[in-house]
Amino acid sequence: MTIIKIEPLESGQHPIQSQSGRKTCWLDGWMEVPSNLESAVWGTAGFCDLEVKDGALKSVTPREIPKIPDPPHQYTDLELVHQEITKLELSAIEQGQAQTDLELMILGGADNV
Questions:
Q1: Does the global pTM surpass 0.70?
Q2: Up-side HSE of residue 48: CA atoms within 13 Å toward CB?
Q3: Contacts by 58-64 with C-beta closer than 8 Å and gap 24+?
Q4: Contact between residue 33 and residue 51 where contact means Cβ atoms under 8 Å apart
Q5: Pairwise CA distance, residues 105 & 82, whole Å
Q6: Could you give the C-alpha distances from 15 to 8, 52, 72, 101, in angstroms and in order?
Q7: What is the pLDDT of residues 52-88, one digit of tens each?
Q8: Measured distance CA(64)–CA(69) in Å, rounded
Q9: Are 50 and 15 in contact (CB under 8 A)?
Q10: How far apart are CA 18 and CA 4, in angstroms?
Q11: How far, in Å, CA of 56 to CA of 34, rounded?
Q12: Considering only CA atoms, which of 36, 8, 34, 4 is closest in space to residue 18?
């Protein structure tokens, strides 16, 4: 038996559950999905409008299933090592530039080089 929550979540989705071995829905706020509507309900992933008459589900109207954003990129250990190497290389360049600036200052500027 398939059951569906009558009130949708904030996302607009009606949670759906499969209840094996049960003959009736006893959960508060949920209702049984008639067998002729089960595939339609599962096909909507719960993103649907419910038509309820006399306490029974009569029809479902599919709604657009929102696109789930991709999770943020998780850096691999190799990528993290490459980032650290790049930081060290940039630091070495900065130190080299500071040393060059100091040498030019000691020599009296770029005019004396």
A1: no
A2: 25
A3: 63/12
A4: no
A5: 35
A6: 7, 16, 26, 66
A7: 999 899 999 999 988 888 889 899 999 999 999 999 9
A8: 15
A9: no
A10: 9
A11: 8
A12: 4
